[in-house]
Amino acid sequence: MSQITAPNLFSYPKYWAECYAPAPFLPTSRKEMEELGWDSCDVIIVTGDAYVDHPSFGMAVMGRLLEAQGFRVGIISQPDWTCADAFKELGQPNLYFGITAGNMDSLINRYTADKRMRHDDAYTAGGMGGKRPDRAVIVYSQRCKEAYRETPVVLGGIEASLRRIAQYDYWSDKVRRSVLMDATADILLYGNAERAIVELTHRLANGELIEHIVDLRGTTVLCSTIPADYIEVDSTRIDWPGYIEDLPNPYEYKDAASCDKKETDIDAVAPLRIIPAPLKGKEKLPDETYIRLPSFEKVSKDPALYAHTSRVLHQESNPHNAKILVQKHGTRELWVNPPPIPLTTAEMDKVFGLPYQRIPHPRYGQSKIPAFDMIKFSINIMRGCFGGCTFCSITEHEGRIIQSRSHESVIQEIEEIRDKVPGFTGAISDLGGPTSNMYHLNCNDPEIQSSCRKLSCVYPVICKNLDTDHSPTTQLYRKARKVKGVHTVSISSGLRYDLAVEDPEYVRELVTYHVGGYLKIAPEHSEEGTLSMMMKPGMGTYDAFKKMFERFSREAGKKQYLIPYFIAAHPGCEDKDMVNLAQWLKRNEFKVDQVQTFYPSPMSLATAMYHSDKNPLKKVSYKSGKLYTPKTEDQRKIQKALLRYHDPVHWPLLRQKLPELGYAHLIGDSPNSLVPAKEKSSNDDKGKGKGKVGGRSNRSSSKPVSKRTSSRPVNSTKKPKGKKKTRQKSLKPR
Q: CATH code at 130?
């Protein structure tokens, strides 16, 4: 199977408005439009974030990209959503409204994993919370329709992307319809949407009606009927009363047959059945084929069908072999086109080389935007992730094929930061992305990559077809350090250590020059059963990397530490697993200061596990075993407390629960105890001590404290002085 190609992103004839020079900032008011000489906008982007003209902010990327195509683009940032007036600020757009909740899902932005409301928002001036509504995509879309009913509305961004089909909603504890239905919008763009938004905008500008645009990759639309001449592959049931093809495990590692070029036949898409009859032999499915998923009405009432649907969706994620997915919502058909074709390096370079000001819009004055302050000296060098971690939604959004920029593009951005960004002192805080070390790593055979259906190239072992040569990254680091005016280049994106150990020269370079005392990595757990549900490598790989890290640190004459991150209450994680992890932490003298409790984000495989108590990594049936999933407040609280075994706040709960779990021997004063025995107070003859408990410090004087927030990882970017630990939050996804 050959790779599918797409037109160059910058090959379209430019729209007539290219006669206007690029705007200093995309206009946010009528006054700014008048200063540019505009009488109207062609496209108006409505966003839940403060407007920062920087390539790390989605509204800036899409706005500048459309500007480069010749369109006039305005920005309505964090409007008052209580009425339609704010959505009329720039007038009626000539082509459409583009709606995004912002760089984060509005509900994850607003609520912790324990569903407690946050009172801050890093993407808002002054860090103030409450500047965007819950389910912002739905609210903004409806207000745009109120303002100008006939104007098309286009949804995009991560909130819309991860809700493109019926999805389990953690906050309401139910399966919700596709966001396209609730928003009453016209089309939804998912994933990295540069290709889709450019083609869509040009087609609308050429007079095509939006209801006729149903064939765009990376889009979801609603249809009354299925287009003619398509073959349906029925995947609406899991216990079919008759012939059922074998269901391959897309995550199973196969030596000789792994990613075999012959996986273009019908067996590659089992358990899908052709209606009215199965294909015979090894016939290839025609391109005019769609897969019928169980309807919204069925998956909303049947958790097992939901898990099955999630499994099929993830199997159809490779843009080179994915089929159209169709899911009925009431009387309408939700039509999900295959994912977008990844950008080439040349296209990525041009997108990141657009004329960004690299600072917030002047309307915010001196107010700080925390998210911008955290990334203003960092550079995104790649997109995508082939790790396939079940708790993470990066693959569902950005895809598993890595898209990388060139060295020249990255170096040019470093020079722009040096020359344009206020406050730059010579320190680049990160060269990374979803991970720091997948830059230019991809399948070494394009034909194999085109036919592969595995979501992870590194689980349970690294695929033999994956290029693990880190030399492009190593060379980039060396070039970055030589840029005039730059004295420090830190790497603060999370490291995939199972890949790093394949290239010791990269680890040596990283440890010697780019670690400021601490390096964050994510084992996530210590127990094999839980790790298998996460699709993460075993602790043997962690130990191998730790030895390499410590050896190269000694050779560099530096005292440095690893900061491992862990998750509590993940689906499949039993209490005994958390006890074992707590004991591992104590043996290794780690005292985690803040922990991450599993957060069921939309569309992830782990969320399907959480909702269904089924394991979609294997064939799903009504008879398949029930997966233990910590869901209640008490279950999640005890697992979190075990990660924080050293904190006196959790000792009363652990003293109560450990005996119930059969671990009473872990309470006491022995070296192996997790919790000290309760001390008697001299003033309390009943033994209810009110004094200092346990007599142990909450901190270790010899080991670092590993920190992690409930939903936002904490980053280490500054070199510590002595034993003082300085940390900086990172809002980049892992």
A: 3.40.50.2300
